[in-house]
Write a structure and sequence with these properties.
It is a single chain. The chain is an alpha+beta fold. 38% of the residues lie in helices and 23% in strands. Strands 1, 2, 3, 4, 5, 6, 7, 8, 9, 10, 11, 12, 13 and 14 form a 14-stranded mixed β-sheet that branches. Strands 15, 16, 17, 18, 19, 20, 21 and 22 form an 8-stranded antiparallel β-sheet that branches. The longest helix is centred in the middle third of the chain and has 50 residues, at 382-431. The radius of gyration is 34 Å and the shape is elongated.
Length: 622
């Protein structure tokens, strides 16, 4: 049950997510100064605008941070609580049992309270704690297991460890009555109980806070100096990153997922799960005392800011997706607002790269991977497909209404013209009965010819000269394909068959395909325009590169029978990625594809391509 390595120091950050109650209006950006600060903080004098002290991040991120009250139009702000902070931070607290309010034995101190405000209407309140007399890592994991739950009760205690309301007799009913949840205590103390905000608008079942923690331990004296830090603390790290109690859970080596581990140096080990992100250090293993002098400080500034950005990404995406219901999918105004929000989110908050400093960037990527934010981000685009389909239907309906009106007008004019001709013919017949037969034939012929020409001109004006599609099929986002290609290359590195094909097997060729797709038909006579904009699920099941063509072998996995029926007629569904200078995309089907150990899910959208204007049609041509 863990090792008995001594903990020299610890810092624990709890992140409480709040969201603005929108009353049906989910639009953003929300003005931070004019709206969010007065709404959330109430008495803003108790909160001070502060520099989050984040370093090394790109300017396009740090430039969005509000550093003074004169800064306007900034999308991120960080405030620290200053009102009655001395009393709040000076107290000691302890965890009480949820059942009976009895006192626990893990005293801690609140050291700082801050709040990250984002103009999406989301706020992350950060509470920095320090477990007093932590002892071992297992004791810290026991503490995390208790404190992460929203219902956990805490109670102020005196220096001798007794409850503030206890008498000499010790814990009793007064101890239970004095206990209150940590969140409730913070709300009552700091005044953030404004009714326009609520805790966790993202999930009704969200009953846990996010944990970001660091502990420095001494391992070399107690253990084998030849063992790495990770080898020494592997079992402890399992408990820590899952926020498990070592007393209630057993360590199962088979469940110890090494993909949740990051080891940037011999003195640092990170553990990452949806429950917690923790870093265990051994300062005595570091050179020039880097851990004690610099890393501990940066953990609560730059690293905390990085973690807050990721938490914000996650919760905003949850919030946007939970706002989409089956009714919303047919609500044009709601979908257009959703698209506007998504555009703001993409521009301001969803980053693939945040810094040139390796340890920050790689940690950022690892957390995104564990949180599966890329997959969540892809799900955000589903309503946009629905929006395109609604817009296409509305356009087609409008065009059909216009065509019907024009046809009606033309029909009326034709009837009027024919009546006029009939009247003229009858008048001529009565006046010249002998010549009227031949004249009648000429008039009827000219009338029929005129009507035919008019109909043809009208049809050409309404329907246009026609679209000549080069090919139709399923089109894929180039950026997503490139991300998938990196995953494929990682899988291919471990396959001997692929290695035997030479160094160029995993290399991209000279000409990248700008519009990756699976071809349904080439130079089609008829195109299923009714399917334009319809998404379909595929899996990448193979990869190939013969020096001339590079591509994916794919398989249709969409449950739609209509899509399955179309794809079954494709001889070998594949996606061309890149070509040599003298190669043609049509020859990608000849590649001897190598199967992937783990298929990768991708999504395509049905449409067609026109060579003349180099355009992909994902809406019905008009």
């Amino acid at each position: 049950m863990g090792n008995e390595y001594e903990v020299l120091s610890n810092q624990i950050f709890l992140l409480f997510p709040f969201n603005r109650m929108d009353n049906g209006d989910r639009s953003f950006p929300v003005d931070i100064d004019e709206v969010m600060v007065p709404e959330f903080f109430g008495n803003a004098k108790n909160w001070e605008l502060t520099d989050p002290s984040a370093k090394y991040l790109y300017e396009y991120i740090l430039g969005k941070v509000k550093l003074s009250r004169r800064d306007k139009g900034k999308s991120i702000a960080y405030y620290e609580y200053t009102g009655s902070a001395g009393e709040l931070y000076a107290r000691r607290y302890r965890i009480c049992s949820e059942r009976d309010g009895s006192a626990g034995s893990m005293p801690f101190r609140v050291e700082k309270i801050g709040a990250f405000l984002f103009d999406t209407g989301s706020i992350l309140v950060t509470v920095k704690l320090a477990l007093l007399s932590p002892g071992t890592l297992c004791r810290i994991s026991d503490f995390l297991y208790e404190i992460k739950k929203m219902g956990t009760l805490v109670q102020p205690v005196t220096e001798d460890g007794r409850g503030a309301s206890e008498g000499a007799a010790g814990a009793g009913a007064s101890s239970k009555e004095a206990a209150v949840s940590l969140l409730k205590m913070l709300i009552e103390t700091t005044g953030i109980s404004n009714v326009r905000y609520r805790f966790s608008d993202f999930s009704r079942n969200h009953t846990r806070v996010n944990i970001f923690a660091q502990a420095d331990v001494r391992t070399q004296e107690a253990g084998d100096p030849e063992r790495s830090l990770y080898e020494c603390i592997r079992e402890d790290l399992y408990y820590l990153r899952n926020a498990y109690s070592a007393e209630r859970f057993s360590y199962v080596p088979e469940d110890d997922d090494t993909s949740e581990i990051r080891i940037p140096s011999e003195a640092q080990v990170w553990g990452i799960t949806q429950e917690a992100v923790v870093c265990v250090t051994d300062s005595e293993r570091s050179r020039e005392d880097f851990i004690r002098k610099r890393f501990v400080e940066r953990f609560g500034t730059s690293y905390l800011f990085l973690f807050a950005l990721l938490q914000h990404e996650k919760y905003v995406m949850y919030h946007m997706l939970t706002g989409i219901t089956p009714v919303t999918y047919n609500d044009l105004a709601a979908l257009e607002q959703y698209k506007d929000n998504l555009d703001v989110f993409k521009a301001n908050y969803f980053y693939f790269s945040i810094t040139e400093v390796r340890q920050y960037q790689e940690l950022y990527e690892k957390i995104k991977e564990v949180y599966r934010l890329e997959e969540l981000y892809r799900n955000l685009n589903e309503p946009i497909i629905s929006l395109g389909q609604i817009q296409a239907r509305n356009f087609n309906r409008t065009q059909e209404d216009k065509n019907a009106s024009l046809n009606l007008i033309l029909a009326v004019l034709s009837v009027v013209s024919l009546l006029s001709v009939v009247i003229d013919v009858l008048n001529f017949h009565y006046e010249h009965p002998k010549e009227s037969g031949f004249f009648l034939l000429i008039v009827i012929g000219l009338t029929a010819l005129t009507a035919t020409v008019a109909l043809l001109i009208h049809r050409r004006r309404v329907h246009g000269p026609g679209i000549r599609y080069r090919y139709c099929g399923w089109f894929f986002d180039r950026a997503e394909i490139e991300e998938d290609l990196e995953q494929v290359k990682e899988q291919m590195k471990g396959i001997e068959e692929a290695r035997m094909r030479g160094n160029g097997f995993l290399s991209d060729l000279q000409i990248p395909v700008g519009k990756p797709h699976v071809t349904d038909r080439y130079k089609p006579r008829k195109v299923r325009e009714s399917l334009f904009g319809r998404a379909a699920e595929f899996e990448i099941i193979g990869y190939g590169n013969d020096g001339k063509n590079q591509g994916f072998l794919v398989k249709m996995t969409d449950p739609s029978r209509e899509m399955q029926k179309i794809c079954r007629k494709v001889r070998l569904p594949h996606i061309t990625l890149s070509l040599a200078e003298d190669a043609e995309a049509v020859h990608t089907a000849r590649i001897d594809f190598v199967s992937l150990p783990h298929p990768i899910r991708i999504r395509g959208v049905y449409g067609a391509y026109t060579k003349e204007d180099d355009k992909v049609w994902l809406l019905r041509a008009r």
